[in-house]
Amino acid sequence: MTAATDRSPDDTLPIDIDDIRAAAARLAGVAHRTPVLTSRTLDERVGGSVFLKAENLQRMGAFKFRGAYNAVAALDPDVRSRGVVAFSSGNHAQAVALAARLHAIPATIVMPTDAPPAKLAATRGYGAEVVTYDRYTEDRAAIGARIAAERGASLIPPFDHPAVMAGAGTVGLELFEEVGPLDALLVCTGGGGLLSGCAVAAHALSPGTAVIGVEPEAGDDFKRSWESGQRVGLDAVPRTIADGQQTMMPGELTFAVARQRVAGFALVSDAEILAAMAFAFERLRVVVEPSGATALAAVLAGKVETAGRRIGVTLSGGNVGLGQFVELFRG
Amino acid sequence: MTAATDRSPDDTLPIDIDDIRAAAARLAGVAHRTPVLTSRTLDERVGGSVFLKAENLQRMGAFKFRGAYNAVAALDPDVRSRGVVAFSSGNHAQAVALAARLHAIPATIVMPTDAPPAKLAATRGYGAEVVTYDRYTEDRAAIGARIAAERGASLIPPFDHPAVMAGAGTVGLELFEEVGPLDALLVCTGGGGLLSGCAVAAHALSPGTAVIGVEPEAGDDFKRSWESGQRVGLDAVPRTIADGQQTMMPGELTFAVARQRVAGFALVSDAEILAAMAFAFERLRVVVEPSGATALAAVLAGKVETAGRRIGVTLSGGNVGLGQFVELFRG
């Protein structure tokens, strides 16, 4: 945890707490202020107090709505009217589609052909045009950039963008406002938008909080980058049920924040993710998708110290189709 | 809906709004003030505004905690210390077990042998002693009364008791406090505790609300009783997936309230209940058990008028085991 002591002033980072507060103002009355769930069963099991920020109950079912809406809202109106483009493995797609619809502008979403059918359908359901690509052979960033250039539309990146990070940071802002200081905050980590936003919020509102990113074991690019002090990429798309965390390298901006504001990382297996989804189903009575369950999985699997501590956990999304869910658990 | 116009003053009914307010005071800081969920998808589909009171996110996973806790809390301390007894097909069992544990008194629960394993395990998990019986051949009321007499313990009935009804009525109280007047309120109905409590709350806080009980088609004892003006019983335990609504006759007290304060009833099939559970899973990202989904099922299946109206819906419970859920949907 040495890097966590290497703290920088906020003005050297891509976002600060004022950006998050500005995002919160844009999101007021638009995003849900999601509930913080608690479970005495969970607390007894881990010997601490766990506060679960239920972003699976956010509009379109994931925290991603916050960043996408904030980014679209922050565009100059003339620019915004020409529409937006996004590439995403799922929730960011729906988030941008919904944010565009709420602004009455067109959205084009570049999605992998093997994205969960429920996510493809939901994105189209929000009125977006969907362009598909093969995520094992094609470069989604290049496809998105080309479409944006052709149409004069603005690309809304899934995580590596100050307004997206600041929007995601409102998750941490709301959590600290509601429950006060925490000893640790576990954040589901893909590209690092939620991680970096929550880390900046924690630094301002609860500076003693150890912010910990949680990745699937197969996709530990952020952990490896953080430990080596520079961004390192994976050789191949990680094979994990956590389809929202199949990023291959941290974002440049999100990594810059994580280097200064994150205390460490934890990894969880697909089996541990499934156990967390089952716990959420039976004991919390909420639906959490695999990527959204990784932080809870880290708590349940004992990957972080919980005894006598106050632990925040993001449940970052709940978009798993019923058929997919049944397949995962039919055994 | 003629009976709904046959209104009595509250002082002729077993409970009034002051009983519900007293219950709310006892439950403050003990029960969760559950969130009210909304879904634009749902609103667009039914052409109205639907407000879902998520009692599946209540402690122990169902509204039943409210009534059980209120009834235990209302006992004279000397009497209470000798413990409580309950008979229940599930959620009331867990509710009484938890209420007893919170009061540090013993609980004995009489449960059917074929109750969902998750509910049997959860009841024992709350520290209660469980006595099982065959619900198709034995009389649970007689067994409960015998145990109560032997042990000097107080029987906490599942619904037909003023404190249980008043506790359940806090569901309606909270809903009206949060969303204001409604055109209709659909209430999952078994023995009528939630229905009667919510109907009394509506009469006081939103007198224009048509309170509608929703039963599974196979267990329409309350609808038939209400239509005939007197309590009528079913010939056999209704066969439905809605295991919390397998009551065979309305309660005496709950029926007295329903005659005066309820505007009508709707019935839903098991297939409609499953569709509502699937909708809750995929679009609301919450887990609802079959009995807890009947009111939502009535809305989705068009059993009530929704166009242009503000509709309250109880999601009354979320205790369905993961294995049971997968079986219901594996198709």
CATH architectural type of the largest domain in chain A = 3-Layer(aba) Sandwich
Order of helices and strands of chain A: HEHEHHEHEHEHEHEHEHHEHHEH
* Rg value of chain A: 18 Å
CATH topology of the largest domain in chain A: Rossmann fold
The portion of residues assigned to helices of chain A is 40-55%
Number of helices of chain A: 14
**Biggest interface pair, counts:** A-B, 24 and 23 residues
- Largest sheet, strands/sense/barrel of chain A: 6 strands, mixed
The CATH class of the largest domain in chain A is Alpha Beta
- Low confidence ranges of chain A: 1-5
Secondary structure class of chain A reads alpha/beta
What distance lies between the first and last C-alpha atoms of chain A, to the nearest angstrom?
39 Å
Mean pLDDT score of chain A: 93
Strand content of chain A: 5-15%
Q: Compute the number of structural domains of chain A.
A: 2
| Rough outline of chain A | globular
State the oligomer: homodimer
Task: Let me know the number of strands of chain A.
Answer: 10
How would you write the strand order of the largest sheet of chain A?
A: 1-2-10-7-8-9
Give an account of the 3D structure.
2 copies of one chain form a homodimer. With 331 residues, chain A is an alpha/beta fold. Chain A folds into 2 domains: 17-62 and 161-330, Rossmann fold (3-Layer(aba) Sandwich), CATH 3.40.50.1100; 64-155, Rossmann fold (3-Layer(aba) Sandwich). Chain A is 44% helix and 15% strand. Chain A contains 14 helices and 10 strands. Chain A has helices at 17-27, 40-46, 64-74, 77-80, 91-102, 117-125, 140-151, 162-179, 193-205, 221-228, 252-261, 270-284, 294-300, 322-329; strands at residues 36-37, 49-54, 84-87, 107-112, 129-133, 154-155, 184-188, 210-216, 264-268, 310-315. In chain A, strands 1-2-10-7-8-9 form a 6-stranded mixed sheet, sandwiched between helices. A 4-stranded parallel sheet of chain A has the order 5-4-3-6, with helices on both faces. In chain A, β4 (107-112), α6 (117-125) and β5 form a beta-alpha-beta unit. In chain A, α3 packs across α5 (91-102). Chain A starts with 16 loop residues before the first helix and ends with a helix. The interface between A and B is medium-sized, with 24 and 23 residues.
